[in-house]
């Protein structure tokens, strides 16, 4: 009788284990852009499709775009840390002061394009910034390819034309850069920019090409100013795909392996390519809709870059005072960004 009870108990436990394992793991993924954005359509959704296929349906995603889980973009890092979401795509720089090391990749005139810049951001993270992301399972770190100055009525052709303009800034680094060059930064999330420009609250925005179509920025901004192709751009936003560490650790080894296989350098490369393609496509659409893309003349570009160097020097001084090797971090950012 005792043997029968033990056998029944073992069988029941096995069935429970199999049943639990058979239930798919639903990963809640949150981000701040619309569902039609390139980041969801070209990267996040394909990533979800891949891990679902490779796990035979054991891993599935529920995507919550446009802050559907509530809160603000700056709160996404806490939402994933606290388990409100399992994975988030967001900019660490939206949470000012919390990720100071990775800020080096957002220094002015470092990143040239989305592909090489994303590769550089990942290399920089691996060398210098893993400790400040220790609370997360980092799936990818990449860049948006760089900030462009989008303005409604006044074209920006040199530093003098920035004087007195109110421009949306995405991060602390962009805010500091605008102040250094004579403009007034106004911090706000991408979703508010178009309305703010249409109402005259701001004159324009420093924003990546990625957000132009999803947020309908091109409908209110006629002028779009950037450096010549191949030149480091004003600034960039480092972006991240972060997973709740406890959620990741709770997965069986085979599902962890699938997440790992499709994360890191391969996923960073996917983000870089997607953003690079989006930049090309968006510029074509803007030109076709009679938007004016202004390429800075070499002398005006050099003047802006020289002025921005004073900000980099200040940043180095500030982070060094906090116990970080600011000079080395800045040097690493430039060095990694120069690699193809």
UniProtKB/TrEMBL annotation:
PANTHER family recorded: BLL6794 PROTEIN (PTHR33376:SF15), PTHR33376
Matching CDD domains: PBP2_TRAP_Dctp3_4
Coiled-coil regions listed: none
Name this polypeptide is given: TRAP transporter substrate-binding protein
Signal sequence range: 1-22
Lineage, highest ranks first: Bacteria, Pseudomonadati, Pseudomonadota, Betaproteobacteria, Neisseriales
InterPro entries recorded: DctP_fam (IPR018389), TRAP_DctP_sf (IPR038404)
Keywords, in A-Z order: Signal
